[in-house]
Each structure stands twice: as structure tokens, then as C-alpha cells.
């Protein structure tokens, strides 16, 4: 027995689940397939290693689709200040300077996902298949047939790939990527600190790569330490006491004492961009479309903007009685997002290259740049607004406006 859907979203991570919520209560019949059911949240459980700095625009999207309460009632750590420094220059950004109570929020990825998946249950037009595995996928320009492991078959007018950086859907529909390896890994550490969180994120640039210190609730923090793959492997293999000693030697005293390491993981850094975001009856969102250097924590933020833009394009086209699977309709989404994402990826690369370069002229201009960013208020405010996701052509959900 085949079940027909207007939209089938493959992948119910943060971005796919946000798209499902964005399409909630619309006239479209939507299915969401997620292979892993995330663990329940329990208030006193340790923080997860995977956390993201969510921007103000991301919070707005989550609020507008009704999922932010699910984040707020679980756990998140707002931050008001952002300090960026290197050997001889530094800049501090403060939300009060632009009349916002916060610059963003550090949230465990699982909490954002749980809040969105909970919210999905409120929409009669969205059906969640979780946990569900895809057995077979037949794509043609006139529609897609998806067979699940339990034998159920779903027919989709539009199939959305929200299945992450290794997207199987993207590969199966034959969309290529441009990618390169930064030849760096990120070591992510979950640590217990002597001081409680202070609503500030710290980012330092040293020749081996950036180092970030992100506050979590209570006496905990997340550290992201970029280095060569060999060095990250060496650090990861150390005993806790030795790794703690390396942390104490490497990170500045200003961050306070680190008492213990509660968890460690590492991730290779890769840039990847899909050559197209759409084909007839197919669209890519989130990491399935782009993987960006996590240096300034923008990956899921731009992914949530993709979800908001695609929901708007599909709902508006359906209301205008257009064929939502037509390439001309889906191209509207691509036009809204691909260039914006490319700009953000390029900007991150410029930061990355400039801050990891030790050539004297570049060091000079970099210090000058940080100094200017610190002193020139309009430039500083612009940087802050960009990091908060408030610049550019924002979709309705990111402005707090309902699509319906
Ligand atoms: C070290 C590090 C730090 C980062 N920090 C930040 C940050 O501070 N801020 C930020 O914005 N971003 C950050 N990012 C990036 C961010 O984690 C990603 O951009 C984000 O997770 C992408 O979300 P997604 O939903 O597109 O994909 P994913 O999170 O990869 O989710 C994909 C989902 O699809 C499911 N799935 C996959 N295949 C199938 C299938 N065949 N069938 C069904 N389901 C499937 C998976 O189970 C998963 O739930 C960071 C990344 C790294 C590596």
C-alpha cells in the first residue's frame, strides 16, 4: 500500500525537523523520515559533546514554528559577549551595544532536535517515521518512491535531502559537490570549570588554528581546539591528567581553572558545497547542501535559514496553485539560499586563511583589522548583526512572521 505525500523530508536532524515544523499546519501533506530516535532529555544528565551556537535568527525561526519553548524548558546557555583575540590584538562584541539582550545561545544539538521533533507532533499534516530506514529509493523527475525497511512505501512529489553532509539522497539523485579538506581536525572537549558560566564566548587565533571556549549551563564549558589531524590524534589518545595539563598550558588563564575533562571527540574539517540545490522534485537543505568551516559556528544557522526559505517557497507556490515539484518553483529556493551560503562559506575561509597565516604583512593587517573592529562602532555593529544572522534577505520565519 503506497502512501502519497506532497513533501517527504529525509533526515529529521535540526534542519530537517525545522523544515517539517515550518510546513506544519499548511495544506501540504508531509512525511519525515529519521533513522535514529534521539535520547530523552533528563535535567541532570551530562551535556552532550555536540553543541551549536544558535544565532538570534535561528531562535526566531524556532520561536515562530513553536519549538523554542522546548529548548528553553530543557537547557541552553545564552551569551551576551563574544571576545576574539590573537597575540597582539583583540576585540569584544557586546549585545547591549545593539540593544539586544543576547548575541546567541549555546544549545546541545540533541535538545534543538528534540524540541523540534516534539513540536512536529502538534501538526496533523506532518507524519514522522522514526526510527525508519530507507531500503530503496526510486527517483524520477515526475516523483520519488521510497521503500522503508518495514515494507511501507511512500510516494513524494518533492523529496528533500536533510540527511547531513554524507547525504545518500544527494548522491542517489546525482547532485555533485565541490569540496576540499582543510587538513585540520577539531578536538571537542566537554569540561568542568571552577567558575560558573559567564555569558561570554572566547575565540583565540594561534598559528596552529583557532581555539574556542563556549559556556554551558552551571560549571561546564565546551572547548573546540583546531589542530593538525596528527596533533588531534595525539591529544585524543592522552590520559585525562595529561590532556588536562595540555589544556592548562595552551588555554589562557583568563578563562579560569578547568577542573576535569568529561568527554572528548574529534571531527575532520571539510568544506563542501552542492553544485545544485534543486532538481525537478528534489531539494537539498542544511549540511546535505553545504558544510562550512565551524570556526564561527554558522553551519546549522544557515541550515535553519534554508529550512525557513524552502518552507516559504513551497507553501506560497501551493497557495498559488503552482506545481511545487516544478524546477521553476524549486529554483526560487535555490536563488534565495545558494549565493547567501556561498558568501558565508567564503567569508569563513577568508577568516580562516588570514588568521592562520604568519606572514608579517598579513599579521600587520589582521591586527589592524581587529583594532579597527574594536574601535569603529558601525563596523563592529555590522559584524555582530551578521553573526546574529540579522543581515541579508531573511525568510519570513526568521523575521518572526508566519508563512500561512
Ligand atoms: C566541531 C563542530 C562544531 C560546530 N559548531 C557549530 C555551531 O556552533 N553553530 C552552528 O550553527 N553549526 C555548528 N556546526 C555545524 C552543525 O553541527 C551542522 O551544520 C548541523 O548539524 C547540520 O544539521 P543537519 O540537520 O543539516 O544535518 P545533521 O545534523 O547531520 O542531521 C542529519 C540527520 O539525518 C539523519 N539521516 C541521515 N541519513 C538518513 C537516512 N538515510 N534516513 C533517515 N535519516 C537519515 C541523521 O540521523 C540525522 O539526524 C559544527 C560542526 C562541527 C563539526
Care to describe what's here?
Strand 17 (278-279) and strand 18 (282-284) form a beta hairpin. Strands 1, 2, 8, 9, 10, 11, 17 and 18 form an eight-stranded mixed sheet that branches. This protein has an eight-stranded mixed sheet with strand order 6-5-13-14-15-12-16-19, with helices on both faces. With 404 residues, the protein is of the alpha+beta class. The chain has helices spanning 14-22, 56-64, 68-72, 109-120, 168-172, 229-236, 240-250, 299-319, 327-355, 360-375, 377-387; strands spanning 2-10, 30-33, 51-54, 77-79, 81-86, 89-94, 104-108, 126-129, 134-140, 143-148, 153-161, 177-193, 200-206, 209-215, 220-227, 258-274, 278-279, 282-284, 290-291. The model has no long low-confidence stretch (mean pLDDT 92). The chain has eleven helices and 19 strands. The structure holds flavin-adenine dinucleotide.
Structure at a glance:
The chain is an alpha+beta fold and 404 residues long.
Radius of gyration: 21 Å
Bound molecules: flavin-adenine dinucleotide
Q: How many E-type strands?
A: 19
Order of helices and strands: EHEEHHEEEEHEEEEHEEEEHHEEEEHHHH
Q: Keyphrases for this structure?
A:
eight-stranded mixed sheet, 19 strands, 34% helix, 11 helices, 404 residues, binds flavin-adenine dinucleotide, alpha+beta
Write the layout of secondary structure elements.
Elements: E1 2-10, H1 14-22, E2 30-33, E3 51-54, H2 56-64, H3 68-72, E4 77-79, E5 81-86, E6 89-94, E7 104-108, H4 109-120, E8 126-129, E9 134-140, E10 143-148, E11 153-161, H5 168-172, E12 177-193, E13 200-206, E14 209-215, E15 220-227, H6 229-236, H7 240-250, E16 258-274, E17 278-279, E18 282-284, E19 290-291, H8 299-319, H9 327-355, H10 360-375, H11 377-387
Parallel strand pairs: 1-2, 1-11, 2-8, 5-13, 11-18
Antiparallel strand pairs: 3-7, 4-7, 5-6, 9-10, 10-11, 12-15, 12-16, 13-14, 14-15, 16-19, 17-18
Amino acid at each position: 500500500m503506497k502512501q502519497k505525500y506532497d513533501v517527504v523530508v529525509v533526515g529529521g536532524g535540526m534542519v530537517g525537523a525545522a523544515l517539517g515544523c515550518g510546513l506544519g499546519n499548511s495544506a501540504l501533506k508531509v512525511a519525515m523520515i529519521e533513522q535514529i530516535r534521539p535520547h530523552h532529555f533528563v535535567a541532570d544528565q551530562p551535556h552532550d559533546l555536540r553543541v551549536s551556537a544558535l544565532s538570534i535568527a535561528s531562535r526566531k525561526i524556532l520561536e515562530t514554528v513553536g519549538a523554542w519553548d522546548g529548548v528553553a524548558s530543557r537547557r541552553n546557555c545564552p551569551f551576551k559577549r563574544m571576545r576574539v583575540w590573537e597575540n597582539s590584538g583583540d576585540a569584544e562584541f557586546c549585545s547591549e551595544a545593539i540593544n539586544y539582550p543576547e548575541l546567541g545561545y549555546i544549545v546541545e544539538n540533541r535538545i534543538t532536535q528534540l524540541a523540534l521533533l516534539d513540536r512536529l507532533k502538534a501538526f496533523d499534516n506532518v507524519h514522522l517515521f522514526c526510527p525508519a530506514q530507507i531500503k530503496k529509493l526510486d527517483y524520477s523527475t515526475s516523483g520519488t518512491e521510497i521503500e522503508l525497511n518495514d515494507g511501507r512505501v511512500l510516494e513524494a512529489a518533492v523529496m528533500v535531502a536533510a540527511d547531513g553532509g554524507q547525504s545518500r539522497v544527494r548522491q542517489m539523485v546525482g547532485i555533485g559537490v565541490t569540496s576540499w579538506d582543510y587538513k585540520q581536525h577539531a578536538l571537542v572537549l566537554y569540561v568542568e570549570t571552577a567558575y560558573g558560566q559567564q555569558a561570554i564566548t572566547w575565540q583565540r587565533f594561534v598559528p596552529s588554528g583557532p581555539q574556542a571556549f563556549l559556556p554551558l549551563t552551571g560549571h561546564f564549558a565546551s572547548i573546540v581546539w583546531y589542530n593538525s589531524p596528527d596533533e588531534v590524534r595525539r591529544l585524543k589518545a592522552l590520559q585525562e591528567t595529561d590532556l588536562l595539563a595540555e589544556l592548562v598550558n595552551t588555554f589562557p588563564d583568563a578563562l579560569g581553572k578547568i577542573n576535569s575533562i568529561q568527554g572528548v571527540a574529534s571531527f575532520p574539517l571539510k568544506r563542501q558545497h552542492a553544485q545544485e540545490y534543486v532538481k525537478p522534485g528534489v531539494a537539498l537543505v542544511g549540511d546535505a547542501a553545504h558544510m562550512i568551516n565551524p570556526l564561527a559556528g554558522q553551519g546549522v544557522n544557515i541550515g535553519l535559514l534554508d529550512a525557513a526559505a524552502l518552507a516559504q517557497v513551497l507553501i506560497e507556490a501551493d497557495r498559488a496553485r503552482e506545481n511545487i515539484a516544478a524546477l521553476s518553483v524549486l529554483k526560487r529556493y535555490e536563488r534565495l539560499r545558494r549565493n547567501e551560503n556561498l558568501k558565508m562559506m567564503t567569508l569563513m575561509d577568508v577568516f580562516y586563511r588570514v588568521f592562520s597565516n604568519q606572514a608579517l604583512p598579513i599579521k600587520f593587517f589582521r591586527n589592524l583589522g581587529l583594532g579597527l573592529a574594536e574601535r569603529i562602532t558601525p563596523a563592529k555593529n555590522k559584524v555582530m548583526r551578521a553573526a546574529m544572522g540579522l543581515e541579508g534577505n531573511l525568510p519570513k520565519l526568521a523575521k518572526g512572521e508566519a508563512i500561512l
